[in-house]
């Protein structure tokens, strides 16, 4: 059906209006759009946290009317050459994660578990289509309610998988019609997550788990996290707990944790190192995570040693390990198990054992490894840029300037620690101040556009959104982690996945030393997560970076659409050329896109987009 504007033009000019009139109309509408956008663009540069929201009253109505008129004229001038929207993927891709095609991996001859690992180099399965949400999908609840109650239609979890879940780190779940409810932090936890956390604290010599931060434990890698209960509790204690679990076609621990708004990423202990640098975590935790730690000549334990900071803790909770150890000791008549024997080769000390809980502490003395060269050799060369490299049978990080005991680290990096990372303190503090201002600008820009329940709710005025309008953010080119720090200082109820692109300066060690979550990633490849797992995607300079890496901007935007939830937001900052190209592609992907001129005389622009809620 033709729009009223097209009918009016047809009456005036006939079915084929003169080209000069068409161009005049297009220019007029573009001028109108520029005038309408000038107030918001100018405001973006000067706005502060106390800015009044009424400057945006009726902004969306004007913007949408101008945009619709412009698109009507554009369709006349382009005719048959009009850009087509990207098609929708089939139902089989609703929970699709690229690079984990087990059947295709088997065909290539991969075996011994490697078929379950990540193999992007073998994936020829990319399709230029948009992944649609399941039929029953609903927008997640905001925090803190969304952490404890999720829509069952948003995750691929069968009833049998739900009923069979029983790990001690999973909270009791209640399945009610279209919701899954987890017990909140009100003391009514049936499976004792609080007691479990408290016991771990006592076993490492603390009075309670509230003292984790004082003991230097700020970051925790939770392997095979169940449904995220332990990580959720640690987050309430102001710790950063990142869940890492294997890819699962259904019943995924990572998908469910992310749906709850908890930090998680797909990762395997099979044949490759995890995408983190050496000396990244203060504690690694495994509760019935299904990994046989002393297999493959201890390669998995060596990987844990690589990830742990000096003086860090490895917490293993497994009744099976206790039974296996007792059986092995009885058969051999020895006083220690193979697992304990290998941890001694790694210079770990068994700090405490209670029932099925084992806690080891990594040595803070790097010379210990050198004195035991006959046991496990020390790695040679730089091991900071680890990106899915094969598991190595050698000890990493012993010669690093970052070899600092966790108890000795301060909450904020001082000048000496910054210089260890090769960063001048003035550059660091300038970056921090920049992101504090940028965050205020972002929030002022998005506030009138984001609603507490639904961004398309009708009404003349745009009400202010709640402080927790987004649960998580992915900073796709994180640099020093400045955006994450600014969000924390502003007390926003949100966590950030800081991504350092492959080929850029590797600042991931700095990000981990600041106590933030982060991974190394090649943006020429898909990110290891499930569809619809992030609320907001942010990228500063990433478009220019991927162009220098000879990557496809179109494929990058399709991947962003896959991992972004419906009605989620994108903020891209770059120079004018890449931004204009991205805006054209955004129209094909059906995003609502707007370019913001920062009005500071530079070539820098913002592209602010929203992903629509599209159903098949």
TrEMBL record:
InterPro entries: Put_SAM_MeTrfase, SAM-dependent_MTases_sf. GO terms for cellular component: cytoplasm; endomembrane system; membrane. GO terms for molecular function: methyltransferase activity. It is a single-pass membrane protein; Single-pass type II membrane protein. SUPFAM superfamilies: S-adenosyl-L-methionine-dependent methyltransferases. Its EC number is 2.1.1.-. The chain crosses the membrane at residues 21-39. It is found in: Endomembrane system; Membrane. Its main location: membrane. Coiled coil: none annotated. GO terms for biological process: methylation. Keywords: Glycoprotein, Membrane, Methyltransferase, Signal-anchor, Transferase, Transmembrane, Transmembrane helix. The keyword Transferase applies. The keyword Magnesium does not apply. Belongs to the methyltransferase superfamily. This is Methyltransferase. It comes from Anisodus acutangulus.
């Amino acid at each position: 059906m033709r729009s009223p504007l097209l009918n009016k033009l047809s009456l005036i000019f006939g079915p084929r209006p003169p080209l000069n009139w068409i161009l005049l109309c297009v220019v007029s509408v573009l001028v109108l759009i520029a005038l309408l956008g000038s107030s918001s663009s100018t405001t973006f540069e000067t706005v502060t946290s106390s800015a009044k929201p009424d400057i945006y009253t009726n902004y969306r109505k004007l913007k949408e009317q101008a945009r619709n008129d412009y698109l009507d004229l554009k369709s006349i001038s382009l005719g048959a050459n009009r850009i087509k929207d990207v098609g929708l993927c089939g139902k089989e891709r609703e929970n699709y994660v690229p690079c984990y095609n087990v059947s295709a991996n088997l065909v290539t001859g991969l075996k011994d578990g490697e078929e379950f690992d990540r193999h992007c180099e073998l994936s020829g399965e990319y399709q230029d289509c948009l992944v649609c949400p399941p039929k029953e999908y609903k927008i997640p609840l905001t925090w803190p309610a969304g952490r404890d109650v999720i829509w069952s239609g948003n995750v691929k979890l069968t009833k049998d998988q739900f009923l069979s879940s029983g790990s001690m780190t999973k909270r009791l779940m209640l399945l009610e019609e279209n919701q899954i409810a987890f017990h909140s932090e009100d003391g009514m936890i049936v499976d004792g997550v609080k007691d479990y956390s408290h016991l771990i604290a006592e076993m490492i010599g603390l009075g309670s788990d509230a003292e984790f931060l004082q003991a230097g434990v700020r970051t925790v890698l939770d392997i095979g996290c169940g449904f995220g209960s332990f990580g959720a509790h640690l987050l309430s204690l102001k710790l950063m707990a990142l869940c890492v679990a294997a890819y699962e076609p259904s019943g995924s621990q990572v998908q469910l944790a992310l749906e709850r708004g908890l930090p998680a990423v797909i990762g395997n202990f099979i044949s490759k190192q995890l995408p983190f640098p050496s000396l990244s975590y203060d504690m690694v935790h495994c509760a019935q995570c299904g990994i046989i730690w002393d297999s493959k000549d201890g390669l998995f334990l060596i990987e844990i040693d690589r990830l742990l900071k000096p003086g860090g803790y490895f917490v293993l909770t497994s009744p099976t390990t206790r039974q296996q150890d007792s059986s092995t000791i009885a058969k051999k008549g020895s006083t220690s198990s193979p697992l304990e024997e290998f941890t001694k080769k790694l210079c770990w000390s068994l700090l405490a054992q209670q029932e099925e809980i084992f806690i080891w502490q990594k040595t803070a003395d790097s010379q210990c490894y050198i004195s035991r060269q006959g046991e496990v050799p020390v790695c040679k060369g730089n091991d900071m840029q680890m990106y899915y490299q094969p598991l190595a049978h050698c000890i990493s990080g012993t010669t690093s300037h970052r070899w600092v005991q966790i108890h000795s680290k301060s909450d904020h990096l001082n000048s000496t620690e910054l210089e260890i990372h090769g960063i001048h303190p003035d550059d660091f503090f300038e970056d921090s101040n920049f992101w504090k201002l940028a965050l205020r600008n972002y929030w002022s820009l998005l506030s009138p556009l984001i609603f507490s329940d639904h961004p398309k709710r009708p009404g003349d005025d745009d009400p202010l959104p709640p402080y927790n309008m987004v649960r998580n953010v992915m900073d796709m080119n994180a640099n020093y982690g400045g955006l994450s720090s600014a969000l924390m200082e502003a007390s926003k109820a949100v966590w950030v996945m800081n991504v350092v692109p492959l080929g850029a300066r590797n600042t991931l060690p700095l990000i981990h030393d600041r106590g933030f979550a982060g991974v190394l990633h090649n943006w020429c490849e898909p990110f290891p997560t499930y569809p619809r797992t992030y609320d907001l995607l942010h990228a500063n300079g990433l478009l220019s970076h991927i162009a220098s890496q000879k990557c496809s901007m179109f494929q990058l935007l399709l991947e962003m659409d896959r991992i972004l939830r419906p009605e989620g937001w994108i903020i891209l900052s770059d120079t004018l050329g890449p931004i204009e190209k991205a805006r054209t592609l955004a129209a094909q992907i059906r995003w609502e896109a707007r370019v913001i001129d920062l009005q500071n005389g530079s070539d820098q622009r913002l592209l602010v987009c929203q992903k629509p809620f599209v159903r098949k």
